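OP here, attaching both records as promised.
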Amino acid sequence: MPSKGLPPRVAAGLYIAAGAMFIVGALTSRQIAFSGVGVAFIALGVVMLVRQRKGQD
């Protein structure tokens, strides 16, 4: 049964993009503490990419 989810690279890219938008939003609203959430999203996306590439080797 094929998976109906997004490919891992696409999901990781979306997490990274969401993190970047979170950081921009936090900085523009001057609530810098919320940028930590953006950093967490970016880190999650990077971990997803690294795990996917590690599995291909």
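Record two, same layout:
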Amino acid sequence: MLILPALSIVLGIGIAVLGIIFATKASSIADMMWTRNESATRHSRLLAAPRSYYLWLCRIGGIVLSAAGAGLALSAVASL
């Protein structure tokens, strides 16, 4: 029965690392998302979102993702 907590620890660490990468690369990801949205909403300025919206969306998403991964790993460690 040790395999399930160990798998949860590995999965939690992987999710946390992915969240950290997502949060640190938020600027380039936000630029890509903003560029795609600008080309899609070129004729309607009401639908266009500012670049800072995507930047904060990526940063908060990365933080939430890393916190969830860390929580999963810590709960698995606590159950050992």
